[in-house]
Amino acid sequence: MTHAHFFGYGSLVDQRTHDYTPAQPAKATGWRRIWCATPERDLCFLTAIRDEQASILGLVAPVPGLDWTVLDERERAYERHDANDDIDHPGESTSVAIYSVAGHRRAAPTAKNPILLSYLDVVIHGYLTEFGPDGARHFFETTQGWEAPILNDRAKPIYSRAQKLSGETRETVDAALRQLGSTIIFERP
User: Fold this and answer.
1) pLDDT at 73
2) What is the pTM of this model?
3) Domain 4-185 in CATH: superfamily?
4) Which end of the chain is more exposed for a tag (fewer CB within 10 A), N or C?
């Protein structure tokens, strides 16, 4: 039987945001995670880019029936890349894909492209659940682009897959943003 998997490194790490099972912890070598802006969006979001000196933690999960349609639609701002040789995971797979925004479409974060706190909360909940506090720290340390302001939308989440937060998630995110010296805003510029 052919098995195809995807590697998730952002919101897909929070298994509450999808039905792809079984998902398992994995590591992508030769990839780095960054916040970026694109012409189509007025918010920053995560992407993975090639960097032979880097590695990131995430999850791998199977693509049911090799039907990429639903996942490709969820990740429509990205291109799907073969990453089979880059992903270390415990499962059997004939192929593993990673999604990445094309280089010509990526722009550096600016004050006009904030990061949604509700999105970041979901991502960190996933890392805390799958990898514990060390995994959440690894996420903050291995992600670039923190110069973008953080739009605090917790009271009225804008992110479509926002989830209920635990106190641990909230405290972990807030402490990390303070340590990074992030600028928190309450309205879009």
Assistant:
1) 87
2) 0.92
3) Gamma-glutamyl cyclotransferase-like (3.10.490.10)
4) N
